[in-house]
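4.2 Preliminary Data

To establish feasibility before requesting continued support, the project team ran the inverse folding procedure on a target of 145 residues. The structure was first converted into the token representation described in Section 3, and no sequence information of any kind was made available to the design step. The complete token record follows.
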């Protein structure tokens, strides 16, 4: 491809039309490049959008799991068997379950588990939080024995 220079313009400014055009091979190569790059860029944007949505919902699920664990420990209702429910945050519904089981390392303690499930972009995800609790501890955290 040839561009007009000042020297060319000095000769009357007339250029031959074929000298300033792209060749068919150059146009086809550019179209092929765009046909590869555009779908790849769109796919990358979709993946980034999905990752952002899942991260935001995991943050909400972690807050709900933390709240469920804290409320159950304060109300001392964590050792009444498995419990479940739903919570809504920012218009999104999260399902939670609360379970307790004895901790193998020491029989006086129990592992209390809160699992929160949610769906994002057509897939199901879950967040699980665990803590140790003692059945002899009151709501203030002092030993009652």
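Position-by-position output of the design step:
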């Amino acid at each position: 491809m040839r561009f007009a220079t000042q020297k060319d313009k000095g000769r009357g400014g007339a250029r031959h039309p074929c000298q300033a055009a792209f060749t068919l091979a150059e146009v086809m190569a550019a179209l092929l490049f765009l046909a590869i790059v555009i779908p790849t860029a769109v796919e990358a944007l979709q993946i980034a959008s999905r990752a952002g949505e899942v991260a935001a919902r995991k943050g909400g699920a972690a807050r709900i799991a933390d709240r469920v664990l804290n409320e159950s420990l304060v109300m001392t209702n964590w050792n009444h068997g498995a419990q479940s429910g739903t919570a809504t945050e920012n218009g999104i519904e999260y399902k939670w379950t609360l379970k307790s089981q004895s901790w193998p390392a020491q029989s006086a303690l129990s592992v209390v588990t809160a699992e929160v499930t949610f769906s994002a972009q057509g897939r199901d995800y879950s967040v699980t939080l665990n803590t140790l609790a003692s059945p002899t501890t009151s709501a203030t955290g002092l030993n009652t024995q």
